Amino acid sequence: MIEPPAPQDVMFYPAGSTMWRTTDVGSASRTSGWTEPTGIGNNTANSITALGVSRSGESPVLYYGTSGGSFYRLNNADSAAAATVPSNVTDGGFPGNAYVSGVVVDPTDADKVMVTFSNYEVKSVFYTSDGGGSWSDVSGDLEENPDGTGDGPSVRSAAILPQPGLDPSQTTYYVGTSTGLYSTTELDGNRKDPASGACARRPSAYPSAKQVLKLPKTQLEHVILSLTQDLFDEGNRSYRKDPASGACARRPSACGMTS
Fold first, then answer.
1. For position 182, what pLDDT does the model report?
2. Which residues lie across from 172 on neighbouring strands?
3. Could you tell me how far CA 34 lies from the centroid of its own chain?
4. Contact (CB, 8 A) for 191 and 253
5. Are β-strands 231-234 and 180-184 bridged in parallel, bridged antiparallel, or unpaired?
6. What's the rounded Cα separation, in Å, for the pair 3 and 47?
7. C-alpha to C-alpha distance for 177 and 125, rounded to whole angstroms
8. How many whole angstroms separate alpha carbon 4 and alpha carbon 60?
9. Alpha-carbon distance 51 to 157, whole Å?
């Protein structure tokens, strides 16, 4: 859970309910170069289990979640005074006392954040576009039932991949789960399969979803392309061969993750 935002010399490292910060990772060592933002440790009851840092703007915003389901935001995370108390942006709709397993911040917008919970039989994926002021459940068809109960997977991590080079531009959202890697370009509706007309989950054949999702955005795109043998890149456009005709066509989107 070491998280290096932009600029690359800033790094955050959680340890139990405390957080450590360095602004010069190149010269920091195990015993020097780190400071403890005490405002985090003094106001966090449970262990910090996941964190994400913005990569847009001049000063990073730190988001982190805990083993008890609480979620926090700290502005100017690289320079905030050690005693600064982070904002508690836990939503009333989050599953109670659940385990925050993943946090990802949109690399183009510090206010757009996705958080995942790994517990079974709960709503697993939430999204905010206003920095945690309000949240939406975007679990959708990852869950068997709208309330999260049933035979849904454990969601372990997430990634957001903006693709401005596509025509039209789009953003793809990924979640790594106990049953595979899932993706969608729609957070506000279920998309039907063009062949069957049904909305169904699309698991990935990738061997390690969690490992893939922890990579930086550019490496994530490279891994996704390289692990799919019949997928190739033409500029910023990705195509897939149609198994029936052999022709190359734009890869259809999976169903949206909202119900």
1. 86
2. 161
3. 26
4. yes
5. unpaired
6. 16
7. 11
8. 10
9. 11
Sheet holding 180-184, edge to edge: 155-163, 170-177, 180-184
Which three-class secondary structure state does DSSP give residue 171? strand
> pLDDT tens digit string along 147-200?
999 999 999 999 999 988 888 888 989 998 998 888 888 885 454 444 554 444
Q: What residues contact residue 253 under an 8 Å CB cut-off, 6+ apart?
A: 183, 184, 185, 186, 191
Distance CA 209, CA 205 (A): 9
CB within 8 A of 81, min separation 6: which ones?
Answer: 39
Q: How far apart are CA 78 and CA 21, in angstroms?
A: 8
User: What does pTM read for this prediction?
Assistant: 0.74
In the numeric block, which tokens belong to residue 169? 């531009």
Positive or negative, the CA dihedral 214, 258, 199, 148 is: positive
Give the model's pLDDT for residue 195.
Answer: 54
- Strand runs labelled E in the chain: 11-15, 18-22, 48-53, 62-66, 71-74, 87-88, 100-105, 113-117, 125-128, 136-137, 155-163, 170-177, 180-184, 231-234, 237-241, 248-250
Phi-psi category of 76—alpha, beta or left, where left has phi over 0 and alpha has psi -120 to 50? left
The residue with tokens 């939430």 is 126
- Of 2, 21, 16, nearest to 76 (Cα)? 21
Strands 180-184 and 170-177: antiparallel
Do 125 and 135 meet the contact criterion of CB atoms below 8 Å apart?
Answer: no
Residues of the chain with pLDDT under 70: 1-7, 188-259
Q: What is the pLDDT of residue 113?
A: 97
* Phi and psi, residue 54, nearest 5°: -65, 150
